[in-house]
Amino acid sequence: MTIENKVVVIAGASSGIGAATARLLASKGAKLVLGARREERLAEIASEIGGDNVIYQATDVTDKDQVKALIDLAVEKFGRLDVLYNNAGIMPREKLADAKFENWEKEININIMGVLHGIAAALPIMQEQNDGLIITTDSVAGHVVYPESAVYNGTKYAVRAIMEGLRQEERLHGIRSTIVSPGSVGTELMSTLDNPEMQAAMDEMFKHVSQEEMRMNVLDPEDIANAVAYVVDQPKHVSITDMIIRPTAQE
Ligand code: NDP
To answer: Residue 232 carries which DSSP code?
Structure first.
């Protein structure tokens, strides 16, 4: 089996990388179950894809029961679960001295607990199948620490450790674990920035950047979708553990 007919759950499918991946995998014949909080956005993507091979359900990844319900839906509707793609994430970014407890809690709950909720719900099904692939969107920020980004970095480093632990624990069950680590991608993630100074500095910087420079510094969501599709397309004996994808000019 390549991508065609594989049953793929995408958590965080309503915009950006998740939505682009849904469109690409659908075009290659995958059966999709899409989750995120913004149900109307999921409905738009599902109707654009069309046909019986895509369903969606409003899901908040911070709620373990909602994540389990999303994953169970794949088995109910399509009979199995080949791939779980944990893609939901936010990036508020702030200095530690700002002590933004609310942001820290949200980041940790979405970026780390959301991934753990997905793993917990998918593993019993995948162990029973003796087959399965769990992909998580990590980040270059899970490999390199940036200023004013300690907590976001911390969540992405944690995800890298969790996914490697998953690989070690489950490799003999035929379950593969992959992180895809993008550099800068042009998506709605910036709207989750809760840092007016940083937002203003970035807006100012982008005003002076030519289209050509932008092209070399910012990826499209489709560039990451291509990487995810490559991972999904591999046969069972091939385990891709980490793909780092930077725009060419990124440090
Ligand atoms: P978007 O903001 O476009 O997408 C984020 C997705 O996560 C949306 O579908 C959003 O859906 C979902 N999401 C956020 N919170 C929750 C929640 N509580 N429950 C369910 N879904 C949630 O940004 P990107 O496409 O850029 O982000 C996707 C992933 O890529 C994130 O994990 C991000 O950290 C990572 N990444 C992004 C980079 C970039 O430069 N853009 C670089 C490196 C990594 P909704 O709001 O409808 O719930």
So the answer is: H
236 alpha carbon – ligand 1 mean position (Å)? 28
Q: Which residues contact 60 (CB under 8 A, 6 or more apart)?
A: 37, 66
Q: What is the pLDDT of residue 1?
A: 64
Angle at 92 between CA 110 and CA 89, to 5 degrees: 30
* Half-sphere CA count of 33, side-chain side, radius 13 A: 27
| Structure tokens, 25 | 């995998």
Distance (Å, rounded) from C-alpha 10 to C-alpha 184?
Answer: 21
Distances (CA, A) of 96 to 124, 144, 151: 38, 17, 8
Q: Which of 56, 85, 146, 152 is catalytic?
A: 152
ipTM above 0.90, yes or no: yes
What domains, with CATH codes, occur in the chain?
A: 7-245 (3.40.50.720)
Distance from C-alpha of 233 to C-alpha of 6, rounded to nearest angstrom? 10
Question: Tens digit of pLDDT for each residue in 179-222?
Answer: 999 999 999 988 877 788 888 887 787 788 888 888 999 999 99
